Structures are given as structure tokens and as C-alpha cells.
Amino acid sequence: MSKTKVLFVCLGNICRSPSAEAVFKELVNQKGEAKEFEIDSAGTHAYHEGEQADRRMQTHALKRGYDLTSISRPFDPFSDWDNFDYIIAMDESNMSNLKAMARNESDLKKLFKMTNFASRFKYDHVPDPYYGGSEGFELVLDILEDAGEGFYNYIKKQHK
Ligand code: 4NP
Questions:
Q1: Could you tell me the domains of the chain?
Q2: Is there a catalytic annotation at residue 128?
Q3: Distance between CA 72 and CA 55 in Å, rounded?
Q4: What is the C-alpha to C-alpha distance for residues 14 and 52, in angstroms, rounded to an integer?
Q5: 14 CA: nearest ligand 1 atom
Q6: How far apart are the first and last CA of the chain?
Q7: Which candidate, 131, 144, 123, 138, places its Cα nearest to that of 57?
Q8: How far is Cα 19 from Cα 144, in angstroms, rounded to an integer?
Q9: 89 Cβ inside 6 Å of ligand 1
Q10: Could you tell me which of 13, 131, 126, 16 has the C-alpha nearest to residue 75?
Q11: Cβ(52) to ligand 1 under 6 A?
């Protein structure tokens, strides 16, 4: 069976989407399904291209056992739409930037907002933690753990 390919997208690819990548990798690992997935992340902008995840985000993630190893890269409209099955945006601004880069209906069908899969946390976006304090980084992880479960269940239903 071919792998399910998932790309998480935020603005800078140093806080929210690398965390989503690590949280979701750990989730499928716990389910014993790591080999069935390919999971990556990207930013809509290239400001931080080549950088490791934000130190503060790394510290908060590591406290929950998530090692943020990904290196920031911008979304590539010439290959990412074709390479991934699901493109998951963190907020409305990421959604509209991605929509503007979609080439057709089939691209748009791959696009979802992460918070639509959350059930415990009633947010309509994953708030950008970059200019705030510690609580913001913890909230990102709380929402991603919640939405990650919902997203996993959604994928399973699609592939039944
Ligand atoms: P992210 O957070 O989109 O979750 O990676 C941000 C990272 C960098 C900036 C803003 C948000 N920035 O303005 O450089």
C-alpha cells in the first residue's frame, strides 16, 4: 500500500508546523504505523529557510517528548501539491496563501485547516506563538495533540 503523505504548513516553519510534524509523527509511531506515513512541514514564507525550529518551541516540545529536528523550508507550489495527499494549514492566513498557489480543484481538495480536526480545543486557528510568552507555545502543543488525533481518525475513515 502506498504511504499517506502529509504536509503541515505555517508561516515561518519554525514554530507551529515543525511541531505539528513532530506531534503527528509521534502519534502514528504510537499506533505502530510510522512506515505507512510520510510527514513533513513547510512555511508559506522563506524568512527562516535553512534554520532549525525556534529554540523556545524546541524546549517546550522536548518537555513533552517531541524532538523538533526539521529544518525550515518554504512551501514549493511546483512539487508539494503533487507530492502530498493532505496539506494542513495552521491558520486562515496560511490557508489563503496556499489557496492562491493552488493550480486546480484537485489541489484545493487536499487543503485543510488543522483546527477543524480538534475537538477539545475550540480554536479556529493555531495561534502564532512567535511574539508571545511560554503559554503560547504550550497552547500550540495542546491544540496540535488534540487536532492530531482528530486528523488521524479522519484519515482512517477516508481509507476504509
Ligand atoms: P510559525 O511562527 O509560522 O509558527 O513558524 C512564526 C515564525 C516566524 C515569524 C512569524 C511566525 N516571523 O515573523 O519571522
A1: 4-158 (3.40.50.2300)
A2: yes
A3: 13
A4: 7
A5: 5
A6: 13
A7: 138
A8: 8
A9: no
A10: 13
A11: no
- Report how far residue 46's alpha carbon sits from residue 75's, in angstroms, rounded to the nearest whole number: 8
Cα separation of 117 and 114, whole Å?
Answer: 6
Please report the pLDDT score of residue 29 as a whole number: 98
Q: Considering only CA atoms, which of 94, 85, 84 is closest in space to residue 115?
A: 94
For the cut 90, the answer to whether the pLDDT of residue 44 exceeds it is yes
* CA atoms within a 13 Å half-sphere pointing along the CA-CB vector of 10: 25
Angle at 65 between CA 60 and CA 68, to 5 degrees: 65
pLDDT in tens, 100-129: 999 999 999 999 999 999 999 999 999 999
